[in-house]
Amino acid sequence: MKTKRIDNYGKINRDKILSFRWDKKNYKGFEGDTLASALLANNIGIVGRSFKYHRPRGIFSSGVEESGALVTIGSKDRRDPNVRATTQELYNGLEASGQNAFPNVNFDLAGINNYLGRFLAAGFYYKTFMGIPPLEWGKGTAIWMFFEKFIRKAAGMGSASGLPDPDTYEHAHDFCDLIVVGSGPSGVAAAIEAAEKKLDVILVEQDSLIGGNQLAENDFDNSQIKNQLENLGIKIMTRTTAFGLYDNCVVGLLERVTDHISASNVNIPRQRFWTIRAKHIIVGAGAIERHIAFNNNDIPGVMTVNASKHYLNRYGVLTGKRIVIATNNDSVYETAHQLSEAGANVTVLDSRTNFEIETNKSFEIRKGYVPYNINGSKKIDSLDISKSETINKSETINCDQVLLSGGWSPAVHLLSHRGVKPKWDYNNACFLPSDTKENITMVGSSRGLWNKNDCIASGIAGTTDALNRLGISKTNYFFPKPGGWKNPIQPLYEVKYKKSRSKSFVDYQHDVTTDDVRLAHREGFISVEHLKRYTTLGMANDQGKMGNIIGLSLMAELLNKEIPEVGTTVFRPPYTPVSIGALSGRNVGKHFRPLRVTPMHQWNIDHGAKMIEVGLYQRPWYYPKENETLSDSYIREASTVRKTVGICDVTSLGKIAIQGPDSTEFLNRIYSNGFSKLQVGKARYGIMLRDDGIVMDDGTSWRLAENEYFMTTSTGEAAKVMSWLEELLQTRWTDLNVNVTSVSEQWAGVSVAGPKSREVLNNCVDDSLVITNNNLPFMGVTSTFLKGNIPCRIARISFSGELAFEVYVKSDFANTMMDLLWENAKKYDGCLYGLEALGALRVEKGHVTAAELDGRVTIDDAGLSKMASTKKSYIGSAMRKRGVLKNNDREILVGFFPTNLKETFNAGTIVCEKNNIKGQGIGRITSVTYSPELGHWIGLGFVKGGLDKWKDTNLVGADPVRNKQMNLKVVSPHMIDPKGERMYA
Amino acid sequence: MIRINCPYCGERDHSEFSYGGDATINYPSLDASEKEWTEAIFFRKNIKGFQFETWHHSNGCRMWLVVERSTVTHEIKSVKPCHPDLQKVVENNK
User: What are the structural domains, with CATH classification, of chain A?
Assistant: First the structure.
């Protein structure tokens, strides 16, 4: 192939020269070039090596359907693999390289695979490495697992940089009445018609220029169209692909903002991911020209006819000197004429025998001839041709390029995303879009219209259809009939080659040959979906835009069926690849998910807290002194709480205000324990069950007034509990007069715990009388003031098992409260303590948290049977004793000690009987800590049958993940102060 | 993306809502038998076509809604508040 730039052709800007690098060499192109056109202008024919056989591959197309010219753009952290050279706009300094070749695409050592082709047919790797039944069980699979990574490396495409992506991406949203996809004649006509009818219109074009396939015409100028569209107020989005259609007329767009320019500006995103909510969608996505399968139809120099027209008229590149066009339809003749005018020697092989076409006789037409075999390996030397009825070699034509047109496939992909199956049209040998009830209208060549006037008429009809469906008008309209060529197309998908070891490619990008399709058929993979997965036909990133129909036709022939009976695979989004960066947008790094902080977050950090994430919340984990490690610190903190006093931020607990005359009745129904007799000024610990009798959450509810409660929930379940309460009140118990309001953000909470906690609080409250043991007994609640006239709520609640208070103030007073408490706690050698110490204290006491209440546990399992009222019915009361929940071998909450008290263990350890260490054992350890009080490691967890069954038995803790094993004994979960004497102090 | 026309907030993306479940279940009284509760909780129909289901506008007005939606096409026929009193308010404001 000899490709060259020629004068007086193309719409490129020849005054603006751009330099670029291809495989480490410098080249030049012009503004308006794509990488593909610039490579062709520099006579570069081989741009990659094929997926499996490492055959030299060139440029097949001029658009998104490209299945040969996949290249890597950029370097280092901006390396972007598998980019279609045909859609990559050229910019100054662009750096690109070929893929899947070593050392380079011109001389590739793995090209040997081409000669081993007979061993590399569809399914080869699986058959070889996974073994033949029954050997595949066990050994074969293991071999596959071992070899897979080498195989994947050998057969593949470009590789990702593996480095963090330095670019930014954005998510954007918009609304409109009508979105038009595609700016060809039909799309533009639709958009103009709609804008004139006062619709708010967005026009989307994947190319950098509007015009669609008209850009391949030598006399096309889009500037007037552009002005007209803009004057009508149409929002034009170029370099933007509608990659998917979704429910309710939602369209996903990918806008490539900076992929066509060299300098990266950190203030501009590289790509924008748009979600457009439209009222109607018009798709004028065009049609894609198919190739024809015959031997060696992948040699560089093979291209679609329409692509060569694009390269000539848009980029001023003549793609060959001696060109043979092989076709079965009328669409190629204008191109043939223009190519010969531009100086090429053109021969057209038309598989049809009876047809009339007007030409100026500047090129030869061979009626009833088909291409048969290409001679050459890295370039085309000659083409063997044959009479189409009897496939036998009749002569050889010397040529350097073969252009193919096996017909056109309307781009029905977007409609297919909505589950609308296309229907086969025999007259035009293609799938046409079916009608849909949704507000989507297909126009132009994507509904099988081949000439421009029909396309324009269909665009106007499409908008009328939209206006009718939107109830704006009631106008009759009709769409032109599919087709539009003078002579009918004659189906031609494959020209068979009788010699063995032929390679005629159906899917260039995945190296799927016609023989692979036949092999799949022989081995029983006859359903289209099986064929696809077995041969990987259409599974590359071009998604079979060119080759799918050929594969279907071959299977139809093998099954003696028609193409529509064989069916077509469903196209799914995206139409063209969407980068992961665009999908994640700004939701990366710190912005991956929202961050919640408590109002005393900064105060905690200023006072030395190391933070930890709990759900979305940042909570103090521990407060190390000088060189303390985590364990040094939490052990000190927990000991200090037991000895004197500690202060802990508990703001992240969920807080719900419950108000209204039926509040008490409401709480009585949702908690398993009784609430009807709770006095004003008292709090109660409560457990909520789900409908199915499993524990949902635990927390406290404080009766502030006759009809007002303040509920706390666990940190993790706060949102769920809130939704649950709302659901009950709005859907089930609509007669209850209760209001629930989330006040989690409004109150800042702190726990003051330890034997000296009352003394600390005495110094902090306005009136110390309110917190005496008499006035504020265990579980008492009071609304009072901290010094400085700060209103607060105090409840005598203990999670640590010590004398303790929870103090809540309005969030704005959080720092003042912390200053006040901390200043006074220091006087008693108190400490600030974090989540780790809080955990140690509660494990010592056997208090459960989310680690234990994991959605599988009943009240009885958690050892809280006395919390289940027998005097009332509540949510879950009927179900908590159902079936398996009654079994007496259920796992019950217990405490664990290592038999050898010097040993440690981890949460997640599986508890087993001594001589039966396997599987899920008889229980599990859910929480562990070092107990400063007891001086050794302790754990909480579950064991089948509970404490009574295993009290005096030596058990084994198996920890296969950490390769540990230790002897255990089961103890009561209440490992210290089981009677709670300290709490009541 | 499903778009739900919240009677209070207007048409919004489904990502603002949380799915509840079958809106046609009559939950038994709290003192009903285990059998009745089992029927209500575990025996559900798998409807092909339109069904009434609850959605919570959890990132919006916090209203629980009954949505009549096709499980095949996601087409939505009607949206109204679950609570009968709120339903009346919406009706009266139409």
Answer: 1-164 (3.10.20.440), 167-287+409-487 (3.50.50.60), 291-406 (3.50.50.60), 601-652+746-840 (3.30.1360.120), 654-741 (3.30.70.1400), 887-985 (2.40.30.110)
